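seq:
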Amino acid sequence: WSGTSTTDSIYAIVGTNPGTVSVVVNSNCGSSSPQTLNVSLGIPPAQSSSMLGVTHLCDSSSTAYAVTNDPNATGYTWTLPSGWLGTSNTNTITATASTTSGVISVTADNACGSSAPSTLNVVGNTIPVVTIAAFGRVCDILSAFALSGGSPTGGTYNGTGVNSNTFDPSISGDGTYFITYTYANGACVRSDSAAITVDNCTGINSNSTSNNISLYPNPFNEFTTVSFGSSLKISNAEILIYDVLGKEVMSINNINNYSVKIEKKELYTGIYFIKVINNNSVISTLKLIIE
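struct:
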């Protein structure tokens, strides 16, 4: 230690060792007995251990962070990223995340000072809104096809008949199934489901007439007309139109007339398949060509 004084006080610069501060009063008659004070040295806290805690969180989710407790610390100072919530003066804190990424920092403190900060980089993720469009009906005779309609794009599809985001009707078989679309934004995972119906579409006829159902003109480039034979008793008939992947692209319901007009403006150029349903039974399947 260092410092000098001839008065009743002294300013001392602390050294590295504890010990005794002693003072005597002097006069022409001599010196007094010493007054002494034993002094010890406080130790500033050491830098805390590596911080423990989750590094990727969803917005508004809460989790705990911690460092090893230092016996020389009398408190701790935590700093969180902008928008995050949480307070503590101990070696642990429960933090509620926002969508902001940043650094969690903590120092151990006592009267002698503060340690170097211990830090952890964290990421706050927005909870995604995940939707999937309805699939409708597909034909069981078609090859596997890539699934689409999930939003945001970049997620994964799962379900009966699904493999690597493709759907294979030959694996699922006829029936109605639910396909789940899952999307992850960092630690935030959400999903949505939609039904797909696989129908028996065997016997699709390439002619323009089948089972008292006529389609003329075919091919066409403006419109075509589906006509029901006069011998049929029409009861809430339905026309379903599929593209070459077997995905339903149009449906006309509650038909009670003997002719229905289909316009090109509602479809793209290409090949389609028409399924005619009457009284809940498939009565005809035809190939439709749009030029």
